């Protein structure tokens, strides 16, 4: 398990945006997203995640509006 800690409370928006891109993550706190890859992770799975993450972060920022500080 890994977690992605954000300076802003974007976890719910990141979770929604990742699900829209076919990747499951969990918003476990307003500013914390849990990443739990499957036990069998293919190169294609990893590449799909790496392609989806920056798009989901951008979508989360756009959905929540501008804020103080960084993501």
What's a concise summary of this model?
It contains two helices and three strands. It has helices spanning 11-20, 43-64, and strands at 2-5, 26-29, 32-35.
What spatial form do the alpha-carbon principal axes imply?
globular
Radius of gyration: 12 Å
Give the beta-strand count.
3
Strand content: 15-25%
Category from helices, strands and their pairing: alpha+beta
Helix content: 40-55%
- Terminal CA distance: 21 Å
Largest sheet: 3 strands, antiparallel
Strand order of the largest sheet: 1-3-2
Tally of helical runs: 2
Low-confidence stretches: none
Describe this protein's structure:
The chain has helices at 11-20, 43-64; strands at residues 2-5, 26-29, 32-35. It is α+β, with helices and mostly antiparallel strands and 71 residues long. Helix 1 (11-20) packs across helix 2 (43-64). The longest helix has 22 residues, at 43-64. 17% of the residues are buried. The mean pLDDT is 89.
Can you lay out the helices and strands and say which pair or pack?
Blueprint: E1 2-5, H1 11-20, E2 26-29, E3 32-35, H2 43-64
Antiparallel strand pairs: 1-3, 2-3
Helix pairs in contact: 1-2
């Amino acid at each position: 398990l890994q977690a992605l800690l954000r300076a802003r409370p974007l976890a719910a928006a990141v979770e929604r945006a990742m699900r829209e891109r076919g990747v499951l993550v969990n918003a476990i706190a307003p500013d914390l997203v849990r990443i739990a890859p499957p036990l069998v992770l293919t190169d294609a799975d990893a590449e799909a995640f790496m392609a989806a993450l920056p798009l989901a972060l951008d979508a989360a920022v756009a959905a929540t509006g501008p804020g103080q500080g960084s993501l």
